[in-house]
Amino acid sequence: MNPATANIEEAILSAILAGRIAPGTRLGEQKLADLFGVSRTRVREAMMRLETRGVVQVSARRGWYVVEPSAEEAREAFHTRRVIEVGLLQTVPHVPPNVLAALKEHVAMERAAIESGDIGSRACLLGDFHIHLADALGNRLLTEIIRDLTARTTLISMLYQPTEKAEESSHDHEDIVAAMEADDLTLAARLMGEHIAKVEAGLDLTAKPDPLAGLRELLSPSTFTGNTPSVPHSHTHPHSHSFGKED
Amino acid sequence: MNPATANIEEAILSAILAGRIAPGTRLGEQKLADLFGVSRTRVREAMMRLETRGVVQVSARRGWYVVEPSAEEAREAFHTRRVIEVGLLQTVPHVPPNVLAALKEHVAMERAAIESGDIGSRACLLGDFHIHLADALGNRLLTEIIRDLTARTTLISMLYQPTEKAEESSHDHEDIVAAMEADDLTLAARLMGEHIAKVEAGLDLTAKPDPLAGLRELLSPSTFTGNTPSVPHSHTHPHSHSFGKED
DNA sequence: GCCTACAAACTTGTATACAAGCTAAAAAGC
DNA sequence: GCTTTTTAGCTTGTATACAAGTTTGTAGGC
Predict the structure, then answer these.
(1) With contacts defined as CB-CB under 8 Å, which chain A residues touch B83?
(2) What's the 3-state SS for B132-178?
(3) Which of A25, B34, B49, B74 could be cross-linked to A66 through a Cys-Cys bond (beta carbons 3.0 to 4.6 Å apart)?
(4) Which residues of chain A have pLDDT under 50?
């Protein structure tokens, strides 16, 4: 594949995983072309690839948008993740010690990020746990699938998650790793299933995805100097929005 | 998505699933464009989408080719399928009666195709069992994933499978459905894992994918009137090759 | 003052032309 | 006769021009 195209794809996907791009964000072809210093053709390639991966969508002659999953799609994404990640733990016969060490270190980083209050890397690390798990216990193909699904669920969380329970999630991860260390993969699998179900249960899927989310994004507090925002933001998280900085 | 592009994508993917396109088949942009009555631009779109789905690959300025998975990639594909399909059965709490009925009917069709010696639909049905399962017990997202993976494993079987054990596979399917009927999903999950592992074990992954496969394809017996082919084909299956008929 | 109709600007959709590179066949040299 | 070099043809890679449609801003009518 063309390296330039792959770069664009990767940049957008990792920005989504890090929570730096909100669902519904418009991704103009020309803007991206200028930003990456390539022609529209390349950008279109990357976009179509990302569309296949379920991360962006095109609205005819209006532009490309980061997907805003419906409630139904949200359920599907979580269901799929539960199936795969439970299956992964259930299928693996034994966890090698080096994998276990890496996972424990990762969980430690999660806790550190939570305690230091680093919101940006916190969300990123919580998602990365699952990706690393797939990478360590599965294979590249599985990792790719989990990565795309995690991107989806990250976007879903931005749309439907009233309150982020980062601490609880990290605790769950800890428990899962503990079960793996005790070589009780069946328990680990069950905990993983419960963990994902819990995150899903924490969503408010009755609330329609906010059609004003994009607008709120632009008017988010961080763009002002004052710290008393006049624009209320019900439950969407503030984003650093380092993407598409020039305009 | 553009309907024309989707058509091309779907046509190629389903042809692969049906075993009508062999791994390594060259898919020229212009030929496909003529065949579908569209411009190369559209064909390229479809190809790039299929590339992200892991079904075709582009060789720079040489053309698009249906993937010929390496031994390593073959292992990854089977591992991934095992993880997901075991996870699916393990996660589902109960199988609704109408799903059970549909699956039983499907298995009956498998047996009928095997007994009647219909090789073409036989292979197609055996793969479809897993796709239908994902569709019935999972969701659209999961079905799409399984479909792409099944396309991969179908191609792998064409490359590495010395002898097809269709009857055995169908028996396995029957046992899995029986376990589901007995509401023993844990057993069903275990049987599924063993079934996929068995298919994988039946492969000869030490044998390099035959570099002459493409050539044999062109000289395959079906293109001659006589039924004593002068070109030996070690273990690749004969294909009807209804695809790309005009030239 | 408000609503509607029109126009201008902007964005993607699509085809096409040409560039770049690969393959294979023909020609030249030994 | 065999090897090497050149050349011609074919296929993808990329940019660009223009078509088609959407949005937004503006002017006109009520």
Answers:
(1) 84, 87-88, 91, 138, 142
(2) HHHHHHCCHHHHHHHHHHHHHHHHHHHHHCCCCCHHHHHHHHHHHHH
(3) A25
(4) 214, 222-242, 244-247
